[in-house]
Amino acid sequence: MTDQQQPETASNTPQPKNRSRYILVNTLSSYGRDIIDTITFLVLIPFIIKTLGSETFGLWSLIWSFLAFFELADMGFGASVVKYVADARGRQDIERQQAIICTLFWLYVVLGAIVMGAVAASLLFFNQVFEIPADQAASARAVLLIIGARSALYMPLGMFRGVLVGLQKMKVANGYKVIGGLAYFVSVLIVLSRIPDLRVLAGLNALLGVLPMFAMMVHVKAISPELSLRPKHFDRSLVRELSSFSLYFSLIQVAGLIATRVDAIVVKLFLPLQMVAIYSIGIRLSGKADQFCYHLIKALTPVVAELHGADEQQNIRAVWYRGSKLTTGFATPLLLGLALLAEPLIIAWIGPEFKTSVPVCQWLVAAVMIGVIHGNTENILSMGGHQKFLAFSILGCQALNLGLSLLLIQLYGIKGVAMATFISYLPIYVGLIQTKAGRVHERSHWDFYKSTVFPSIVPALLMAAFLVAAQRYRPVTNLMEVAILEILGSMVFAGAFWLIGFNAKERGYFKDKIIKRVFRRKR
User: How many domains does the chain have?
Assistant: First the structure.
């Protein structure tokens, strides 16, 4: 992503190669995991709705949204795991690494116990507050307790995924997640078809969600035999250091919670339980797309941090602009295709009774696009010492989203909740976050968008024209046709982007630095 020349010394020469390989392998493993998760998701959602009913699926979605509040107990320590384990590894300080892992483990044990206590207390009011029907009340309490226990166990066990990432073994963590996901997929199809009960689904989810995390803990112990989790290695002096770093990431976590979970609760407060199920389809589709589009942004985060540490401002701007252009170019055909094919996709996937979720999906996809465009701008700020500003900006964005949701749901129903998300993103990301980064690096809005977003506009228009014309010529009726049309539309976009979006210098760069290098390695 940069043209930086490295010093020709034995100690420095391997570093760029190792860093590039780490980014590539872990990004590809994350995409592979996402592809499998998406296929599983596309099959299981309609299966669960058909087996248990849309109202029961609405209850399932509501419980997950409610329990997301307990994720705040993480307090941002998840980010500390990766940062401090990687830092200790870089220093080759095994003693400090052991102390950090042990300290975080016992912090998470305490936080997990708090979560379990809070879940148990919520049993006293959950059914009354959300007006759960009498025939669903007992099931709701049981599922809340089962999934709550899963969330509590996730606290200490889930930490080991962060340890693996810090040890540059994200591909291992992704591997365990894939195995657990496939086991869950097969188990639900077999067991739920024989015992159609929401409590059975919750039990499978809890068991096969926790087991991969336990396997990661065992793996970490196997590759780090010197690691001990005995309480005597708990270091109180590290708590303050870890907390000071995690504070602002905790605020971003709060904002993320509002963005992904609170909408379902708002819908339930104003509308019947079945509408939660309909809204959840739109948010799940847009959420999957969002997750898929962000892997490159996440892969560039440590690169930006390293360049900031070396005060290489020119290379930071190069990563910022080129990364944003590539991320936008990658995300546009996926998100545009999802928006324009939302109706045939949802009808073929779930059924015509869920057609109401189409505008929900489209508005949320538009919001995802705003976030993706500015994803590397967030990197520049968070890794450049402006995490406080970023945290409060994103928190303000979601507070605005919540306020608008409460207003617009009364005017437009569930579509209004999705509209609120998009409307709240525009002023915060464009007006605050992009403005701040532009001031720090002396770049105007026009300069940024001209270099990163404009190259995707003409290819996007050509793709949109193709998809609209294709659907008018031959209506899409099944998922296979949706997939084929999306692939063809993406090919139209990719061809146009290669010719229009890249200039001759950039095409030459990618041919010389990426394509030829890949083929040379294969030979």
Answer: 1
Round to the nearest angstrom and report the end-to-end CA distance of the chain. 24
- In 3D space, the residue among 361, 366, 335, 336 whose CA is nearest the CA of residue 347 turns out to be 361
Tokens of 184: 């869950």
Along the 523 residues of the chain, how does pLDDT read in single tens digits? Answer: 544 433 333 333 334 444 556 666 766 777 778 788 888 888 898 899 889 988 888 889 888 888 877 877 777 777 667 767 766 766 677 788 788 888 888 988 998 999 999 999 999 998 888 888 888 899 999 999 999 999 999 888 888 888 887 777 778 888 898 999 899 999 999 999 999 999 999 999 999 999 999 999 999 888 888 778 888 778 887 877 777 667 766 777 667 666 666 787 888 888 887 888 888 888 889 988 888 888 778 777 766 766 666 677 788 888 899 889 989 998 999 999 999 999 999 999 888 988 999 999 999 999 999 999 999 999 888 777 787 888 889 888 888 999 999 999 999 999 999 999 999 999 999 999 999 999 998 899 999 999 999 999 999 999 999 999 999 988 888 889 999 999 999 999 999 999 888 877 777 766 665 555 544 554 4
Q: What are phi and psi of 401, to 5 degrees?
A: -60, -45
Nearest to 331 by CA among 179, 459, 445: 459
Cα-trace Rg, the chain: 23
Q: Whole-model pTM?
A: 0.71
CA dist 143 and 150 (Å) reads: 11
């605020």: which residue's tokens?
Answer: 251
User: Is 220 domain-assigned?
Assistant: yes
Helix (H, G, I), strand (E, B) or coil at 352: helix
> Which 3 state secondary structure label does DSSP give 217?
helix
Q: How far is CA 434 from CA 79, 135, 329, 425, in A?
A: 23, 50, 19, 12
- Residue 317 CA to residue 437 CA, distance in Å, equals 10
Report the distance separating Cα 227 and Cα 282, nearest Å: 44
Is residue 375 one of the residues assigned to a domain? no
Q: Which residue has the tokens 């809340």?
A: 144
Residue 384 parent element (H or E):
none
Whether 467 contacts 461, CB under 8 Å: no
In terms of residue numbers, what domain contains 48? 13-234
**One-letter-per-residue 3-state SS of 102-165:** HHHHHHHHHHHHHHHHHHHHHCCCHHHHCCCCHHHHHHHHHHHHHHHHHHHHHHHHHHHHHHHH
Q: 501 lies in a domain?
A: no
Q: What are 318's two structure tokens?
A: 């190069």
Residue 211: inside a domain: yes
C-alpha 100/C-alpha 4 separation (Å) is 33
**How many Cβ atoms are within 10 Å of 6's Cβ, its own excluded?**
11
